[in-house]
Amino acid sequence: MDPVEVRVLRRILPTEDEERRLRAVVRDLTDRLAERITARGLDAKPILVGSVAKGVHLHEPEVDMFVAFSPDLPRADLEKEGLAFGDILDRPVRMYAEHPYTRGWYKGFEVEIVPCYKITNAAQRLSAVDRTPLHVDYVLGHLGEDQATEVRLLKAWAEGIGVYGAEAKIRGFSGYLCELLVLKHGTFRSVLETAGSWRAGTKVEFETPAARPFVEPLVVVDPVDGNRNVASAVSAEQLATFVHAAREYLAKPSERFFFPRPLKPWPTARIKRTLRTRETHIVAITIAAPKVTEDVSYPQIRKAHKSLQDLFHRHGFATIKSWSGIEGNEVLVLFEFEVFRLPRVELHEGPPAWVKNADDFLRKWRGSTRRVAGPYIRGDRWAVEMSRESTDAAALLKREIRSLSLGRDLDKAARRGLNVRVDNAAIVRPYARVLTTMFEPRFPWER
After folding, report:
1. Domains along the chain?
2. b/e map of 281-310 (b: 16 or more CB within 10 Å)?
Protein backbone atom coordinates (compact mmCIF):
# COMPACT_ATOMS: atom_id res chain seq x y z
CA MET A 1 0.00 0.00 0.00
CA ASP A 2 1.28 3.45 -0.90
CA PRO A 3 2.53 5.51 2.08
CA VAL A 4 -0.08 8.16 1.24
CA GLU A 5 -2.85 5.62 1.73
CA VAL A 6 -1.34 4.40 4.99
CA ARG A 7 -1.41 7.96 6.33
CA VAL A 8 -4.93 8.49 5.06
CA LEU A 9 -6.18 5.36 6.82
CA ARG A 10 -4.85 6.66 10.13
CA ARG A 11 -7.11 9.67 9.66
CA ILE A 12 -10.28 7.99 8.38
CA LEU A 13 -10.54 4.72 10.34
CA PRO A 14 -12.72 4.91 13.46
CA THR A 15 -10.83 4.43 16.70
CA GLU A 16 -11.63 1.53 19.01
CA ASP A 17 -13.43 3.90 21.38
CA GLU A 18 -15.50 5.35 18.52
CA GLU A 19 -16.36 1.86 17.33
CA ARG A 20 -17.48 0.75 20.82
CA ARG A 21 -19.63 3.84 21.22
CA LEU A 22 -21.20 3.34 17.79
CA ARG A 23 -21.98 -0.32 18.43
CA ALA A 24 -23.53 0.47 21.81
CA VAL A 25 -25.76 3.10 20.23
CA VAL A 26 -26.81 0.74 17.44
CA ARG A 27 -27.70 -1.99 19.97
CA ASP A 28 -29.68 0.44 22.09
CA LEU A 29 -31.51 1.87 19.07
CA THR A 30 -32.33 -1.62 17.78
CA ASP A 31 -33.65 -2.69 21.18
CA ARG A 32 -35.86 0.38 21.51
CA LEU A 33 -37.32 -0.14 18.04
CA ALA A 34 -37.95 -3.82 18.80
CA GLU A 35 -39.74 -2.85 22.02
CA ARG A 36 -41.92 -0.39 20.11
CA ILE A 37 -42.75 -3.03 17.52
CA THR A 38 -43.79 -5.52 20.21
CA ALA A 39 -45.82 -2.90 22.09
CA ARG A 40 -47.73 -2.00 18.93
CA GLY A 41 -48.29 -5.64 17.98
CA LEU A 42 -46.72 -5.21 14.56
CA ASP A 43 -45.23 -7.81 12.24
CA ALA A 44 -41.98 -5.94 11.67
CA LYS A 45 -38.26 -6.07 12.35
CA PRO A 46 -35.54 -3.39 12.76
CA ILE A 47 -32.66 -3.89 10.31
CA LEU A 48 -29.36 -2.00 10.35
CA VAL A 49 -28.34 -1.05 6.81
CA GLY A 50 -25.85 1.31 5.17
CA SER A 51 -22.12 1.59 5.74
CA VAL A 52 -22.32 0.80 9.46
CA ALA A 53 -24.03 -2.53 8.78
CA LYS A 54 -21.33 -3.42 6.23
CA GLY A 55 -18.42 -2.27 8.38
CA VAL A 56 -17.18 0.22 5.79
CA HIS A 57 -18.02 3.48 7.59
CA LEU A 58 -15.71 6.39 8.34
CA HIS A 59 -15.60 8.71 11.36
CA GLU A 60 -18.96 9.78 12.87
CA PRO A 61 -21.14 7.92 10.38
CA GLU A 62 -24.84 8.29 9.86
CA VAL A 63 -26.80 5.32 11.21
CA ASP A 64 -29.35 3.97 8.75
CA MET A 65 -32.03 1.90 10.44
CA PHE A 66 -34.83 0.30 8.46
CA VAL A 67 -38.01 -1.12 9.90
CA ALA A 68 -39.11 -3.98 7.64
CA PHE A 69 -42.85 -4.65 7.63
CA SER A 70 -44.86 -7.55 6.26
CA PRO A 71 -45.75 -7.12 2.57
CA ASP A 72 -49.39 -7.59 3.60
CA LEU A 73 -49.42 -4.21 5.38
CA PRO A 74 -51.19 -1.52 3.30
CA ARG A 75 -48.94 1.26 2.06
CA ALA A 76 -50.76 3.96 4.06
CA ASP A 77 -50.23 1.96 7.27
CA LEU A 78 -46.56 1.41 6.43
CA GLU A 79 -46.06 5.16 6.14
CA LYS A 80 -48.04 5.92 9.31
CA GLU A 81 -46.35 3.27 11.46
CA GLY A 82 -42.92 4.02 9.97
CA LEU A 83 -43.16 7.69 10.85
CA ALA A 84 -44.31 6.88 14.39
CA PHE A 85 -40.96 5.22 15.12
CA GLY A 86 -39.22 8.51 14.38
CA ASP A 87 -40.45 9.86 17.70
CA ILE A 88 -37.60 8.10 19.52
CA LEU A 89 -35.11 10.46 17.86
CA ASP A 90 -34.04 13.89 19.08
CA ARG A 91 -34.90 16.81 16.77
CA PRO A 92 -36.84 14.53 14.38
CA VAL A 93 -37.57 15.84 10.89
CA ARG A 94 -39.95 14.16 8.50
CA MET A 95 -38.36 13.65 5.11
CA TYR A 96 -40.12 12.74 1.89
CA ALA A 97 -38.77 10.60 -0.93
CA GLU A 98 -40.95 7.90 -2.51
CA HIS A 99 -42.53 7.63 0.93
CA PRO A 100 -41.88 9.51 4.18
CA TYR A 101 -39.19 8.67 6.70
CA THR A 102 -37.58 10.38 9.72
CA ARG A 103 -34.15 11.91 10.21
CA GLY A 104 -32.90 13.01 13.61
CA TRP A 105 -30.28 12.39 16.29
CA TYR A 106 -29.74 9.60 18.79
CA LYS A 107 -27.05 9.80 21.46
CA GLY A 108 -24.73 11.89 19.32
CA PHE A 109 -25.26 10.15 15.98
CA GLU A 110 -27.37 11.29 13.07
CA VAL A 111 -29.95 8.62 12.36
CA GLU A 112 -32.49 7.84 9.66
CA ILE A 113 -35.42 5.53 10.42
CA VAL A 114 -36.95 4.30 7.17
CA PRO A 115 -39.95 1.97 6.76
CA CYS A 116 -39.75 -0.73 4.08
CA TYR A 117 -41.29 -4.04 3.14
CA LYS A 118 -39.61 -7.32 4.06
CA ILE A 119 -38.62 -9.12 0.84
CA THR A 120 -36.27 -11.93 -0.12
CA ASN A 121 -35.62 -10.94 -3.74
CA ALA A 122 -35.89 -7.73 -5.74
CA ALA A 123 -38.83 -8.97 -7.82
CA GLN A 124 -40.99 -8.76 -4.67
CA ARG A 125 -40.25 -5.10 -3.96
CA LEU A 126 -43.18 -2.79 -3.30
CA SER A 127 -41.16 0.40 -2.73
CA ALA A 128 -37.82 1.72 -3.95
CA VAL A 129 -36.03 1.14 -0.64
CA ASP A 130 -37.07 -2.49 -0.19
CA ARG A 131 -33.89 -3.67 -1.96
CA THR A 132 -31.57 -1.96 0.54
CA PRO A 133 -31.37 -4.86 3.04
CA LEU A 134 -30.60 -7.15 0.08
CA HIS A 135 -27.69 -4.84 -0.79
CA VAL A 136 -26.31 -5.29 2.73
CA ASP A 137 -26.58 -9.07 2.46
CA TYR A 138 -24.85 -9.06 -0.93
CA VAL A 139 -21.92 -6.91 0.15
CA LEU A 140 -21.38 -8.81 3.42
CA GLY A 141 -21.54 -12.09 1.51
CA HIS A 142 -18.91 -11.05 -1.04
CA LEU A 143 -16.60 -8.55 0.70
CA GLY A 144 -13.15 -10.00 1.30
CA GLU A 145 -11.41 -9.83 4.67
CA ASP A 146 -9.24 -6.84 3.77
CA GLN A 147 -11.61 -5.12 1.34
CA ALA A 148 -13.44 -3.00 3.93
CA THR A 149 -10.27 -0.92 4.16
CA GLU A 150 -10.19 -0.57 0.36
CA VAL A 151 -13.83 0.58 0.31
CA ARG A 152 -13.11 3.16 2.96
CA LEU A 153 -10.21 4.52 0.93
CA LEU A 154 -12.37 4.79 -2.19
CA LYS A 155 -15.19 6.55 -0.33
CA ALA A 156 -12.82 9.04 1.30
CA TRP A 157 -11.10 9.67 -2.04
CA ALA A 158 -14.41 10.18 -3.87
CA GLU A 159 -15.54 12.58 -1.16
CA GLY A 160 -12.27 14.50 -1.34
CA ILE A 161 -12.52 15.03 -5.11
CA GLY A 162 -16.16 16.10 -4.78
CA VAL A 163 -17.99 13.19 -6.43
CA TYR A 164 -19.26 11.22 -3.40
CA GLY A 165 -23.01 10.98 -3.00
CA ALA A 166 -25.90 10.02 -5.26
CA GLU A 167 -28.19 12.78 -4.01
CA ALA A 168 -29.59 15.26 -6.53
CA LYS A 169 -27.24 18.03 -5.37
CA ILE A 170 -24.09 16.02 -6.17
CA ARG A 171 -25.11 13.40 -8.78
CA GLY A 172 -22.09 11.30 -7.95
CA PHE A 173 -21.01 7.91 -6.60
CA SER A 174 -23.09 6.40 -3.82
CA GLY A 175 -21.59 4.36 -1.01
CA TYR A 176 -23.08 1.17 -2.46
CA LEU A 177 -21.57 1.99 -5.86
CA CYS A 178 -18.12 2.41 -4.28
CA GLU A 179 -18.55 -0.92 -2.51
CA LEU A 180 -19.48 -2.70 -5.74
CA LEU A 181 -16.52 -1.19 -7.60
CA VAL A 182 -14.14 -2.57 -4.96
CA LEU A 183 -15.88 -5.95 -5.08
CA LYS A 184 -15.44 -5.98 -8.87
CA HIS A 185 -11.83 -4.83 -9.03
CA GLY A 186 -10.43 -5.93 -5.68
CA THR A 187 -8.70 -2.84 -4.31
CA PHE A 188 -8.92 0.93 -4.22
CA ARG A 189 -5.97 1.26 -6.59
CA SER A 190 -7.38 -1.33 -9.00
CA VAL A 191 -10.60 0.69 -9.22
CA LEU A 192 -8.62 3.80 -10.14
CA GLU A 193 -6.46 1.92 -12.64
CA THR A 194 -9.58 0.58 -14.35
CA ALA A 195 -11.33 3.94 -14.21
CA GLY A 196 -8.53 5.49 -16.24
CA SER A 197 -9.96 3.74 -19.32
CA TRP A 198 -13.66 4.42 -18.64
CA ARG A 199 -15.66 6.25 -21.26
CA ALA A 200 -19.28 7.41 -21.42
CA GLY A 201 -21.30 4.21 -21.80
CA THR A 202 -18.94 2.04 -19.72
CA LYS A 203 -20.84 -0.97 -18.36
CA VAL A 204 -19.99 -3.08 -15.29
CA GLU A 205 -21.88 -6.30 -14.57
CA PHE A 206 -21.79 -8.96 -11.87
CA GLU A 207 -23.48 -12.36 -11.92
CA THR A 208 -26.85 -10.71 -12.65
CA PRO A 209 -26.93 -9.36 -16.21
CA ALA A 210 -28.76 -6.21 -17.22
CA ALA A 211 -32.46 -6.91 -17.68
CA ARG A 212 -32.98 -3.85 -19.87
CA PRO A 213 -30.94 -1.23 -21.74
CA PHE A 214 -29.49 1.68 -19.76
CA VAL A 215 -28.60 5.06 -21.22
CA GLU A 216 -26.70 6.75 -18.39
CA PRO A 217 -23.00 7.69 -18.77
CA LEU A 218 -21.90 4.92 -16.37
CA VAL A 219 -23.76 1.63 -15.98
CA VAL A 220 -23.17 -0.66 -13.00
CA VAL A 221 -25.86 -3.33 -12.98
CA ASP A 222 -27.21 -4.03 -9.51
CA PRO A 223 -26.29 -7.63 -8.65
CA VAL A 224 -29.55 -8.03 -6.73
CA ASP A 225 -31.76 -6.45 -9.44
CA GLY A 226 -30.88 -6.50 -13.13
CA ASN A 227 -33.46 -3.78 -13.79
CA ARG A 228 -31.47 -1.21 -11.81
CA ASN A 229 -28.37 0.80 -12.67
CA VAL A 230 -26.58 1.54 -9.39
CA ALA A 231 -24.70 4.37 -11.18
CA SER A 232 -27.85 6.00 -12.63
CA ALA A 233 -27.25 9.17 -10.58
CA VAL A 234 -23.71 9.73 -11.89
CA SER A 235 -23.63 12.70 -14.24
CA ALA A 236 -21.31 12.91 -17.23
CA GLU A 237 -19.34 15.68 -15.50
CA GLN A 238 -18.85 13.69 -12.31
CA LEU A 239 -17.82 10.62 -14.29
CA ALA A 240 -15.26 12.69 -16.22
CA THR A 241 -13.96 14.15 -12.95
CA PHE A 242 -13.57 10.67 -11.45
CA VAL A 243 -11.62 9.45 -14.51
CA HIS A 244 -9.32 12.48 -14.57
CA ALA A 245 -8.73 12.37 -10.81
CA ALA A 246 -7.89 8.65 -11.01
CA ARG A 247 -5.19 9.31 -13.59
CA GLU A 248 -3.84 12.27 -11.63
CA TYR A 249 -3.72 10.38 -8.34
CA LEU A 250 -1.98 7.33 -9.78
CA ALA A 251 0.60 9.58 -11.44
CA LYS A 252 1.27 11.52 -8.25
CA PRO A 253 -0.46 10.28 -5.06
CA SER A 254 -1.25 12.96 -2.52
CA GLU A 255 -3.34 13.33 0.61
CA ARG A 256 -4.89 16.41 -1.07
CA PHE A 257 -7.13 14.07 -3.05
CA PHE A 258 -8.62 12.86 0.24
CA PHE A 259 -8.38 16.07 2.25
CA PRO A 260 -8.40 19.09 -0.07
CA ARG A 261 -7.71 22.54 1.27
CA PRO A 262 -10.91 24.51 1.84
CA LEU A 263 -11.74 27.00 -0.86
CA LYS A 264 -10.75 30.54 0.10
CA PRO A 265 -13.17 32.99 -1.56
CA TRP A 266 -11.64 36.04 -3.19
CA PRO A 267 -12.42 39.49 -1.79
CA THR A 268 -15.19 41.19 -3.77
CA ALA A 269 -12.74 43.86 -4.94
CA ARG A 270 -10.61 41.20 -6.62
CA ILE A 271 -13.66 39.65 -8.29
CA LYS A 272 -14.68 43.06 -9.66
CA ARG A 273 -11.16 43.65 -11.02
CA THR A 274 -11.21 40.23 -12.65
CA LEU A 275 -14.55 40.94 -14.29
CA ARG A 276 -13.20 44.20 -15.73
CA THR A 277 -10.10 42.40 -17.02
CA ARG A 278 -12.17 39.67 -18.66
CA GLU A 279 -14.43 42.30 -20.27
CA THR A 280 -17.41 40.03 -19.76
CA HIS A 281 -20.67 40.51 -17.88
CA ILE A 282 -22.36 38.49 -15.17
CA VAL A 283 -26.01 38.19 -14.23
CA ALA A 284 -27.20 36.73 -10.92
CA ILE A 285 -30.78 35.52 -10.52
CA THR A 286 -31.93 34.82 -6.97
CA ILE A 287 -35.13 33.31 -5.57
CA ALA A 288 -35.93 32.45 -1.96
CA ALA A 289 -35.15 28.76 -1.53
CA PRO A 290 -38.37 26.74 -1.21
CA LYS A 291 -38.77 24.76 2.00
CA VAL A 292 -38.35 21.32 0.44
CA THR A 293 -35.55 18.76 0.57
CA GLU A 294 -32.52 19.16 -1.69
CA ASP A 295 -33.51 16.02 -3.59
CA VAL A 296 -36.73 17.84 -4.52
CA SER A 297 -35.27 21.30 -5.07
CA TYR A 298 -32.13 20.50 -7.09
CA PRO A 299 -33.87 18.88 -10.09
CA GLN A 300 -36.05 22.02 -10.25
CA ILE A 301 -32.99 24.26 -9.97
CA ARG A 302 -31.37 22.44 -12.90
CA LYS A 303 -34.60 22.76 -14.89
CA ALA A 304 -34.68 26.51 -14.18
CA HIS A 305 -31.00 26.81 -15.11
CA LYS A 306 -31.59 25.11 -18.46
CA SER A 307 -34.71 27.20 -19.17
CA LEU A 308 -32.74 30.39 -18.57
CA GLN A 309 -29.77 29.20 -20.62
CA ASP A 310 -32.04 28.27 -23.52
CA LEU A 311 -33.75 31.67 -23.35
CA PHE A 312 -30.43 33.50 -23.65
CA HIS A 313 -29.15 31.31 -26.47
CA ARG A 314 -32.37 31.56 -28.48
CA HIS A 315 -31.98 35.32 -28.53
CA GLY A 316 -28.28 35.35 -29.40
CA PHE A 317 -26.79 36.06 -25.95
CA ALA A 318 -23.87 33.62 -25.70
CA THR A 319 -22.66 32.47 -22.28
CA ILE A 320 -19.17 31.34 -21.30
CA LYS A 321 -20.09 29.53 -18.11
CA SER A 322 -22.85 29.31 -15.54
CA TRP A 323 -23.62 27.90 -12.10
CA SER A 324 -26.73 27.07 -10.11
CA GLY A 325 -27.41 25.89 -6.58
CA ILE A 326 -28.46 26.99 -3.12
CA GLU A 327 -26.41 29.61 -1.28
CA GLY A 328 -27.65 30.32 2.22
CA ASN A 329 -31.42 30.74 1.97
CA GLU A 330 -31.43 31.57 -1.74
CA VAL A 331 -31.52 29.70 -5.00
CA LEU A 332 -28.75 31.32 -7.05
CA VAL A 333 -28.25 31.03 -10.80
CA LEU A 334 -25.21 32.81 -12.25
CA PHE A 335 -24.27 33.41 -15.88
CA GLU A 336 -21.12 34.90 -17.38
CA PHE A 337 -21.77 36.29 -20.86
CA GLU A 338 -19.50 36.33 -23.86
CA VAL A 339 -22.21 38.30 -25.70
CA PHE A 340 -24.24 40.44 -23.32
CA ARG A 341 -25.39 43.24 -25.66
CA LEU A 342 -26.62 43.11 -29.24
CA PRO A 343 -27.48 45.84 -31.79
CA ARG A 344 -30.97 47.28 -31.85
CA VAL A 345 -31.51 45.88 -35.36
CA GLU A 346 -31.53 42.18 -36.28
CA LEU A 347 -32.08 40.38 -39.55
CA HIS A 348 -35.04 38.03 -39.77
CA GLU A 349 -35.24 35.66 -42.75
CA GLY A 350 -38.56 34.59 -44.24
CA PRO A 351 -39.63 31.99 -46.79
CA PRO A 352 -38.37 31.65 -50.36
CA ALA A 353 -39.98 34.25 -52.64
CA TRP A 354 -41.95 31.70 -54.66
CA VAL A 355 -43.69 29.74 -51.88
CA LYS A 356 -47.40 30.23 -51.32
CA ASN A 357 -47.18 31.61 -47.78
CA ALA A 358 -44.72 34.35 -48.78
CA ASP A 359 -47.65 36.80 -48.92
CA ASP A 360 -48.40 36.09 -45.25
CA PHE A 361 -44.84 37.05 -44.35
CA LEU A 362 -45.10 40.29 -46.36
CA ARG A 363 -48.44 41.28 -44.84
CA LYS A 364 -47.19 40.59 -41.31
CA TRP A 365 -44.01 42.62 -41.55
CA ARG A 366 -45.21 45.53 -43.70
CA GLY A 367 -47.61 46.40 -40.92
CA SER A 368 -45.32 45.61 -37.98
CA THR A 369 -44.18 48.34 -35.61
CA ARG A 370 -40.90 46.44 -35.20
CA ARG A 371 -40.01 46.73 -38.91
CA VAL A 372 -36.91 48.85 -39.56
CA ALA A 373 -36.31 48.06 -43.25
CA GLY A 374 -37.82 45.72 -45.83
CA PRO A 375 -39.19 43.28 -46.55
CA TYR A 376 -36.76 42.68 -49.40
CA ILE A 377 -35.34 39.69 -51.23
CA ARG A 378 -32.01 38.37 -49.96
CA GLY A 379 -30.77 35.57 -52.16
CA ASP A 380 -33.97 33.63 -52.87
CA ARG A 381 -35.70 34.48 -49.58
CA TRP A 382 -37.65 37.37 -48.21
CA ALA A 383 -35.95 39.16 -45.33
CA VAL A 384 -36.80 41.97 -42.97
CA GLU A 385 -34.72 44.06 -40.59
CA MET A 386 -36.50 44.43 -37.29
CA SER A 387 -35.83 45.98 -33.90
CA ARG A 388 -34.97 43.73 -30.98
CA GLU A 389 -37.30 43.84 -28.01
CA SER A 390 -34.31 43.52 -25.67
CA THR A 391 -30.77 44.53 -26.53
CA ASP A 392 -29.07 43.09 -23.44
CA ALA A 393 -29.43 39.79 -21.63
CA ALA A 394 -30.65 41.31 -18.36
CA ALA A 395 -33.49 43.20 -20.09
CA LEU A 396 -34.50 40.02 -21.91
CA LEU A 397 -34.50 38.12 -18.64
CA LYS A 398 -36.67 40.67 -16.85
CA ARG A 399 -39.15 40.67 -19.72
CA GLU A 400 -39.41 36.91 -20.19
CA ILE A 401 -38.70 35.21 -16.88
CA ARG A 402 -42.30 35.12 -15.71
CA SER A 403 -43.20 33.09 -18.79
CA LEU A 404 -40.59 30.39 -18.12
CA SER A 405 -41.33 27.10 -16.38
CA LEU A 406 -38.86 26.83 -13.50
CA GLY A 407 -40.37 23.92 -11.61
CA ARG A 408 -43.38 23.70 -9.31
CA ASP A 409 -41.82 25.00 -6.09
CA LEU A 410 -39.50 27.48 -7.79
CA ASP A 411 -42.38 28.94 -9.81
CA LYS A 412 -44.24 29.64 -6.57
CA ALA A 413 -41.16 31.12 -4.91
CA ALA A 414 -40.41 33.28 -7.97
CA ARG A 415 -43.91 34.75 -7.89
CA ARG A 416 -43.27 35.85 -4.30
CA GLY A 417 -39.96 37.48 -5.16
CA LEU A 418 -37.17 37.32 -7.71
CA ASN A 419 -34.06 39.48 -8.05
CA VAL A 420 -31.82 40.08 -11.06
CA ARG A 421 -28.41 41.65 -10.42
CA VAL A 422 -25.90 42.63 -13.09
CA ASP A 423 -22.08 42.94 -12.94
CA ASN A 424 -20.88 44.76 -9.79
CA ALA A 425 -24.33 44.55 -8.21
CA ALA A 426 -24.02 40.75 -8.42
CA ILE A 427 -20.59 40.72 -6.77
CA VAL A 428 -21.48 40.55 -3.10
CA ARG A 429 -19.88 38.64 -0.26
CA PRO A 430 -22.52 35.82 -0.07
CA TYR A 431 -21.76 34.89 -3.70
CA ALA A 432 -17.96 35.27 -3.46
CA ARG A 433 -17.33 31.54 -3.11
CA VAL A 434 -19.24 30.69 -6.28
CA LEU A 435 -17.78 33.60 -8.26
CA THR A 436 -14.28 32.55 -7.20
CA THR A 437 -14.83 29.04 -8.56
CA MET A 438 -16.24 30.50 -11.79
CA PHE A 439 -13.28 32.79 -12.41
CA GLU A 440 -10.60 30.40 -11.16
CA PRO A 441 -11.91 26.85 -11.73
CA ARG A 442 -9.69 24.34 -9.94
CA PHE A 443 -10.18 20.76 -8.88
CA PRO A 444 -10.32 20.34 -5.08
CA TRP A 445 -6.91 18.65 -4.93
CA GLU A 446 -5.31 21.57 -6.80
CA ARG A 447 -6.14 24.22 -4.21
Report:
1. 3-128 (3.30.460.10), 143-257 (1.10.1410.30), 268-341+391-446 (3.30.70.590), 345-387 (no CATH)
2. bbbbbbbbbbeebeebbbebbbbbbebbbe
